[in-house]
Structure to design on (189 residues):
């Protein structure tokens, strides 16, 4: 068993799916939290969001989706190298200004509204899939779409298959809905 704390990365629609959300608090990872986030999340985590300016450029077509992913991956790597993603550092900000910042804790969940990885509606990566890698490298176990990612010999791997983690692929396992290495094209919220 791993002694690392676990953070869950999921979407708002999976709140009743066993094993997808953790038992702790929920936090929004969206640039502009949807209204539903106010109901299901306790606040937001800045270091789990894409850069708002980068997101806006992608959204208006001034940047390709691939460029957006690359830029976002670089940003998350920078957050990790700066220490902001580590357990004991990763911090959430509750919606209410009456409450001060709170550390993201073992069992907490970071949420987006993208389709669930591995589902039929999953056509391209959510930024949380990029964040997952950096969180594992920062010292967390990560449950992404109900499956655990762990650190093993300098690699981020799926705990069930021991396959290396590749953003945008969902390897065969007991939870798979797609073939290994399926490329994604399509909508991103
Ligand atoms: Zn998303």
């Amino acid at each position: 068993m791993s002694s690392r704390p676990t953070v869950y990365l999921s979407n708002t629609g999976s709140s009743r799916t066993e094993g997808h959300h953790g038992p702790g608090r929920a936090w929004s990872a969206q640039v502009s939290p949807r209204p539903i986030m106010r109901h299901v999340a306790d606040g937001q985590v800045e270091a789990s969001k894409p850069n708002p300016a980068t997101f806006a450029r992608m959204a208006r077509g001034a940047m390709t989706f691939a460029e957006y992913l690359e830029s976002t991956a670089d940003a998350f790597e920078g957050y990790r190298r700066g220490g902001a993603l580590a357990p004991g550092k990763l911090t959430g900000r509750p919606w209410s200004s009456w409450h001060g910042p709170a550390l993201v804790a073992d069992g907490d969940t970071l949420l987006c509204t993208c389709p669930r990885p591995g589902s039929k509606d999953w056509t391209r990566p959510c930024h949380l899939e990029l964040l997952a890698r950096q969180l594992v490298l920062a010292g967390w176990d990560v449950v992404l779409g109900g499956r655990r990612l762990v650190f093993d010999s300098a690699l981020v791997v799926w705990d069930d298959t021991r396959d290396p983690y590749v953003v945008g692929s969902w390897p065969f396992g007991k939870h798979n809905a797609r073939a290994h290495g399926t490329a994604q094209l399509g909508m991103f919220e």
The beta strands are 6-11, 26-28, 43-44, 91-94, 102-103, 109-112, 141-144, 147-152, 155-158.
